[in-house]
Write a structure and sequence with these properties.
- 41% of the residues lie in helices and 11% in strands.
- The chain is α+β, with helices and mostly antiparallel strands.
- The strands form six sheets. A six-stranded mixed sheet has the order 2-3-1-4-13-5. A three-stranded antiparallel sheet has the order 10-6-11.
- Strand 16 and strand 17 form a beta hairpin.
- Helix 10 packs across helix 11 and helix 22 packs antiparallel against helix 23.
- The longest helix has 22 residues.
- It is globular and about 65 Å long.
Amino acid sequence: MKKLLSVLLICVLLVPAACAAAETVVDRDGPVIRLDAYSQLANYSGLQGGWGAVMLKDMFNVELNIIPEQDGTYATRMESGNLGDLVIWGANGDDYKNAVAKGMLLDWEQFDLGKTYAPYIMEHYTDALESNRIISGDDKIHGFGFNVAFSADSHQSFFYTWDLRWDLYKELGYPEVYDLDDMVDLFKQMKEICPTDEIGNETYALSAWPDWDGNMVMYVKALATAYYGYDELGFGHYNPENGEFLSCLDDDSPYMECLRFFNKLYRAGLLDPNSSSQTYDKMSEKLKNGGTFWSIFNYAGSMAYNTPEHLAAGKYMYAMVPQDATPIVYGLGSAGGNRIWSVGNYTQYPELCLEILNWLATPEGAMTTWYGPQGLTWDYDENGGMYFTELGLETSTNSSYNMAGIEWTSPYTGKTYTLSGTYNDGSIQINNTTLSKDMINPDGNGVETFNKDTWASVATAVTYPIQDDWRTVNNATLADEYMEARVDEYGDKKYVVMPDVPYSESQKSTDLGLKWQNCAKTVKDYSWRAIYAKADAEFNYHVSEMKRLCESYGYADCVAWSEQEAAQKWALTQQMGK
């Protein structure tokens, strides 16, 4: 009753002030409020730092404590009865639905909290909010999914871009690469001409990381997605073109083929031997030092490697897809994806949490999440075109750029702050997005999307000779143009669009959940063992043990569930005419 009266009183007294993101329900000059942000997507633990911390303190008088998902974190927080203030979900399946069922998440419509403190979301995210109502199953709105687009007439940009050290590829004479076997041969040649990185360490084709392993080893299942265009689903893959489910443990499955590929890399000295134990940040450090030749992801390739220093030195990492590969690309949708933004039901500050989410969900908040503070690193020109400032040109290509000593004057309070840390330190460490990067920015000129590659200012910027070489060879300006133009011998597109459909995983029974947990651990453990096998016999042994153990744990039931989910997703696709 105390909470009810408190909320009602705040709603009555502070409604006018709640409409602007920069006007909060908390006194900016009062004690700083610490909010716990439990994020199943975070790769960071502790207080938000850098420029992001400065902005949150200036706008909301808040410091954000990031709590990532680790073994036992979800269960522990559920048992404690408090998930956190902000709660960000890696998926809208069992964990999320269980939290809803147990009353752990705020009802945004209670006392008109959403309308009062998150007005931009309530007005512009209507499809995403209604999708959340359906997924939640209790006829209430508890949040919204990520990557929301206000119109769904296209697809997202490609991030399975197969980024390759183009300078080394050029030095080798642009050899033809048809399939994964050709990739192995290419990497061997690359290592011969570039055996060590910029600080003298051994180079590898790839450096992976286990942080994001789920039901399967992430990089293995992701390579199958990047090569065949099959999307991850349960213990295997889903074919968006016919609804077929492909079990990861089948002898001829895409997962098994890619597992053999990673073992080939390891046995050829082309896979970083620390891949099974290192963090994403450690992998990224090696990448930036030139320690790897390749990544199927742009964020773990070109986006991190292509600094002005590397480009000026003639070093470049960019798209080069094997001829046989058919990468997936995801469709835009107004319903939002499966990574949900929500607020804990037992937070002392529901209004403040909603205000923060509301700001993150605006075009300004989204741009800040991707590119830093407006006016400092990016801005709009007189025609609404987006451009990077001189500082932004540095930070957009080098996340380790040192921000120490740089001054930022807040447009919200007029206060001036001296920043510290690197640009990456200041990036919002929750690690989720609100708006889709590939939708047109409604605050811009009506043409450019949030994606910097569509900005006229970026397209006309100075390029380096190594970039011009890539463009000449591929007859394209940017990776997306190159990916769109790839066709087979019949003229059909060499990519697969995964339609955006309002799908949510069905809840598993307690019995199936236990079987699932045991199978997932087995698949991950024995996949890594197979990757590190020194001979075919050892590889085959680990695979056979993986199958034997999974079968004993009830893998057949896990497959049956996955097949059912694939059928549900395919039915939704057909219903929507996609």
